[in-house]
Amino acid sequence: MTRTDRELLRATLDIWHPDCWGICSTAETGSSLVGHGAAVSGDAAYERCTIYGDSAEHLDQAVAVAHDSPFIRSIHPLDDGPTAAALPSAIGQRARDVFIEYPAADGIGAAFVSRGYVLDGQYRVEDGTETWDLLVHASRESFERSLDEIRRERDADITLERLSPASNATRPGPTGGRDRTLTDRQREVFTLARRRGYYEWPREVSARELAEELDVSKTTLLEHLRTAESKLLGGGR
Question: For 226-235, what is each residue's pLDDT tens digit?
């Protein structure tokens, strides 16, 4: 592949892979998780993540799943982290930042970092599925080949939901602002999620059920929710 074959792309991936503590935790406890990227040193990978729940006990449950996971070497709560402190009460959740270490050969994040792919904002874990937004400097063909490699190496299910030139794609992630900055569709999705008990514990409706009710894909629904939450988070800073 020559340099001229490459382009800067934005990719959105839905991922499931075995023994992932984030997937296990969100599936078992109904919590949700946001990850802030991975770093690799030797055979170890490191990440800072934010776990969301409705109470301190709920967060303790999610952390306990991580402690019991053979995938995690260590987990350190960062209770006074900036992400947790910024969560507005309007979302109806508590948050806890954690710092984790795990074997680099086992993690999806490490698989992306080692190939030069960059997390575009934050990755999200809900309902037993990870959603990653990546910046990729490669040809489309080589990127899709690398996804096949990762599927084999990590025994992972990876669905490529979107692949667009970075200059044309709408960047996901925090945008700042207050409730009035929500679009009508974002407000509709967020309001329905709150009304139907999506932010309750135990969760009364899944993201998939909400997506079916709104006749959109689960990925689209989660993107609307995350954008709405990010705007509310920005307004609470």
Answer: 888 777 655 4
